[in-house]
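User: tokens in, sequence out, please.
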């Protein structure tokens, strides 16, 4: 990517001076399907080198193999546009310069659409490291009403439906991820799931037996914890991207919920980042 940008003489964005327009390069491989997508994040939607950039990136990324020597299937070159000054990377608008702007993964017997800006666990073994152990902590979910908070494309919600949950409500604030989740419910044949496009904690949660929450690194914080306490689910499965935020959230929930089990999930080997899955029961 760097070579392509240098050949086309595309200026890198400087967040202090607001000069230049190339913010970042991003590549993602789906662990189950080996689909590859590459993309550029820019402050501009239109620039004269756009089509040439798309072709050069496509040519550079075509016929690549993963670390196991398996061919990767290049499905698209995307352009994401973020015109807002500052250091935020992703913007609200994404278009395909070549191919398409979404990928499809196949995992746990599910077919999942993942758009360029939708969050997705990148670790190739996330199903074994995070999702399967988390669902094992919950045990039998057949017939249960479940809310999947910060649900994204439905990574937890669809797995719970496949495990026999009676109904799953996915709550997610990103419009793009919500559309992915709706597609995923439909494509996998689930009629007992719904998607609510809203920030977690902005409205009362539906009645549920189990609440699964997978917030960003900052954790649930006061607003999210207040939503959990108001909903009063019998059990909460809390997925934390930071042990510091986990400690803060548990302090806010401790009066009404006791910790039953905790599991550490090392999704980022050789770094100091670790995720934790905590099962809570209402006192």
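Assistant: Sequence out:
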């Amino acid at each position: 990517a760097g070579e392509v940008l240098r050949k086309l003489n595309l200026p890198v964005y400087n967040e202090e001076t607001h000069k230049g327009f190339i913010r970042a390069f991003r590549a993602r491989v789906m662990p189950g399907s080996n689909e590859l997508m590459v993309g550029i994040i820019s402050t501009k939607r239109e620039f004269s080198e756009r089509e040439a950039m798309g072709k050069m990136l496509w040519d550079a990324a075509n016929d690549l193999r993963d670390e196991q020597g398996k061919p990767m299937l290049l499905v698209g070159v995307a352009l994401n546009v973020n015109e807002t000054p500052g250091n935020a990377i992703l913007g609200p608008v994404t278009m395909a310069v070549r191919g398409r702007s979404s990928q499809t993964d196949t995992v746990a017997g599910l077919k999942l659409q993942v758009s360029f800006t939708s969050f997705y666990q990148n670790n190739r073994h996330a199903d074994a490291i995070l999702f399967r152990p988390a669902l094992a902590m919950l045990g039998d979910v057949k017939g249960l009403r479940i809310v999947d908070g910060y649900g994204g494309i439905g990574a937890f919600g669809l797995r719970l439906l496949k495990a026999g949950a009676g109904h799953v409500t996915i709550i997610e604030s990103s419009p793009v991820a919500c559309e992915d989740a709706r597609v995923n419910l439909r494509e996998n044949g689930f009629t007992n799931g719904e998607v609510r496009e809203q920030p977690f904690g902005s409205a009362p949660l539906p009645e549920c037996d189990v609440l699964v929450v997978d917030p960003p690194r900052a954790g649930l914080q006061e607003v999210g914890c207040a939503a959990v306490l108001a909903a009063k689910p019998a059990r909460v499965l809390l997925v934390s991207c930071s042990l510091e935020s986990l400690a803060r959230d548990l302090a806010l929930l401790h009066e009404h919920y006791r910790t039953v089990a905790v599991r550490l999930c090392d999704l980022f080997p050789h770094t100091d980042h670790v995720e934790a899955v905590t099962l809570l029961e209402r006192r």
